[in-house]
Every structure is written in C-alpha cells, then in structure tokens.
Task: structure prediction
Amino acid sequence: MLFRNSRSRLTENTTLTLGAAEPVVIELRASKRARRLSLRVSRLDGRVTLTAPFGANKDEALQFATERLDWIRSHLAQTAPSEVPGVGSTLPFRGAPLTLERGKARVVEISGDSMLLPPQSPERDAIRAEMFLKETARAALVAASDTYAAKVGRPYGRITLRDTRSRWGSCSSRGNLSYSWRLIMAPPQVLDYVAAHEVSHLVHMDHSRLFWAQVEAIFPNYQAPRKWLKDHGTELHRYRFRD
Result:
C-alpha cells in the first residue's frame, strides 16, 4: 500500500503541520528499518512523531496522520507541561516534594521540607538545583552500586550519570554502569532497585529467569519499585533545568 504510483517518496526527515484552527506539528521520519506507518506522542514533551518506511508515499503518510488528528490531540491534552524550578515551586527529592526557597548560604541546602537556594544570581536557580541533584545522585548511586556489587561479588568499571529518557540505567559488556541522575528525585528504594538491577547484569547480561532471580536475591520485593518507575517515572522528566 505504501508504494503505489506516486512521485512523492519519503527519503528524508521532514515536518508536517496539520489542522488550521488547532495546528499540530508532526515530525515525519523516514526509516529504513520501519515496515509500516507508526505514530507516537511523547508523554514527556508532547512531541508527535510519525515514522514511515524509507521511500513511502508522502501523501499516504499525510492521510494517515490527518485521520488520527483527534487521537493525537487527545494524547497531547494528557501531556503534562514542562516546569522550570524556581523559588515558590516544588521539586521532588528522594520521593518527597521540597519547596524551593531563598537561603543565605552560597550553596544549595536542604532544611526540613525546603530546598534553600543561594541569594546571589537568582537567574541560575534552576541550574543550581540541577547541579545539587546530580551531585547527590552520584553519591547515592555510587554507594548503592558498591553495596550490590559486593553482594554479587563482581567489580564494576566506572559510573556515568546521564539524562536519558529511554532507560534509567545500563551496564556495558565491560562492566561500566550508567544511570539517570533523575533517580534522586524518586523514592530511595527506586534508586536502590535500579542500582541492584544494573549490578545484576555483571552476572547475567540479559533479562533471563536467572537474571531476575539474581535481582531478587540482592533486592527482595523489587516488583514494587519497578512498578513505581513504570507508573510515575515519566513525571520526573517534566522538570526542565536548562533551555
């Protein structure tokens, strides 16, 4: 169906804007791996992506998206707007909301239910909050990785912090661990679960039955924090710290 007579073929990525009254911008991607048209609305930033097989008919791709405009708009309506942290707003930290307030110290501090931001250069509040979260996340993830690596009796390589949206952690074939620093915003048991999960890959580089048995052995009842990530993980990405 995608390759009927037409001079309009998809050979590169482009952008579509559909709907006059309520325009919707769609990223149209030509993929050599795709076998059919597929539409996706990101829950993180509301980005709409239409993936089509390389060389597909542009008109048919356009029709495909047009017929699904109502579906696209309904999903966009459910997308939480991004939030830039600042004085007066709240930010999750170790699973609990902290109110951002102006402090007196030259560094970010935690006091009760508040995150105190330095008095100088208020335009850097969001960046300072991000830096604090990253530093705290690194310390927590190193400690958790050390704990679970000792339990499996395997050393790991280096630890890298990233801001990935597709995964919370990974373990390379060389034993290097990578984590999302946003885990520090989740409840502590969630961060610990991800560390136990990735360290278990030092023993089993797959998701076989033996792998999950290894996770259970070093982190019993891992199902609850795993479910928390599935249900609430995307909420941690709605906080934007930089342009």
Observations:
- The radius of gyration is 22 Å.
- The chain has six helices and eleven strands.
- The longest helix spans residues 125-152.
- Helices lie at 58-66, 69-77, 125-152, 188-200, 209-218, 223-232.
